[in-house]
Amino acid sequence: MQRTAGIHHITAMVNDAQRNIDFYAGVLGLRLVKKTINFDRPEVYHLYFGNETGEPGTVITFFPWPKQLKGRIGMGQVGVTSYSIPSGSLEFWEERLSTFGVDFRSSIRFSERFVAFSDPDGLELELIERNEGPINNWSFGGIKAENAIKGFAGATLISAQPYKTADVLENVLGLTCIGDEEGFLRFKSDASLGNVIDIKLTPSVRGLMGAGTVHHIAWRAKDEEDLLRWRNLLKEKGYHPTEVRDRNYFKAVYFHEEGGILFEIATDQPGFSVDEPTLDLGKKLMLPTWLETKREELEEILPPIEVRVLEGDKE
């Protein structure tokens, strides 16, 4: 049976690019591993944040576009993006969120204590202590490796048909159902990061795409050969996947599952160092070859942005 290792990346919609960088790099300490453009709308940035090298299972990406309307989190979407932090670091993160004026609440699900909060655009996030997964050696601002976000803990899906979504996770993507508790079904993959998916079983409002919502969640394929096997399987199951699309840093296919959530399957290879050295990730605007001739035009259109240490971290 085909089995995905877990989450490859999650892509969301926001309004302001600099505010997005200040929060995910400045407050959360993730590395900006790629500064590029939306291949379908090159006047809009596509920003990628992850661990030191941007490994699958650590990367959240954003389309920051000031003109888009505010969205609404609900059915047919990823409702919550969860991050894994080292065991014993939750108190550090509670203090850090307080320092930067981020409201949070503590809760417990499946016997795990976590901190829940929202980013400036309204995306719902969680920090969960987990022993699994390698330490992230990227240090920024006041965050050292012993407290740094390791990558995704997982995600919570809000489905219009939760049991059909559960069927896709279990019988198409190959995740294992490991329990249910207080209105959630939990599934797990074999990876050490991005490996736990909860499906919310209680009804919700219909989700509306826009700023502050997740556009899609991507699952891991080993390579292009594996991706083609996934595409064939999806066609056999009647899910009508797209053609393989080249995203420079991975190749991907997309499909909607019956609960309304847009799923992607993306290759682990070639990764983010394919067009710039690992030490220089995220420093320069990177363009696909077919847009390189329009670099000057695009750099004039796109707003200036930078990764900067925030006041709360300055001595």
Strand-helix topology:
Blueprint: E1 7-14, H1 17-27, E2 31-38, E3 41-50, E4 59-64, E5 77-85, H2 90-99, E6 104-109, E7 112-118, E8 124-129, E9 151-158, H3 162-171, E10 176-181, E11 184-188, E12 196-200, E13 213-221, H4 224-236, E14 245-246, E15 251-256, E16 262-267, H5 295-301
Parallel strand pairs: 1-4, 5-8, 9-12, 13-16
Antiparallel strand pairs: 1-13, 2-3, 3-4, 5-9, 6-7, 7-8, 10-11, 11-12, 14-15, 15-16
Summarize this, please?
The chain has five helices and 16 strands. It is of the alpha+beta class and 315 residues long. An eight-stranded mixed β-sheet has the order 2-3-4-1-13-16-15-14. An eight-stranded mixed β-sheet has the order 6-7-8-5-9-12-11-10, covered by helices on one side.
Account of the 3D structure:
The chain has 315 residues and is α+β, with helices and mostly antiparallel strands. It has a single domain (7-313), classed as 2,3-Dihydroxybiphenyl 1,2-Dioxygenase, domain 1 (Roll). 16% of the residues lie in helices and 34% in strands. A hairpin with a 7-residue loop joins strand 11 and strand 12 (196-200). The radius of gyration is 19 Å and the shape is globular.
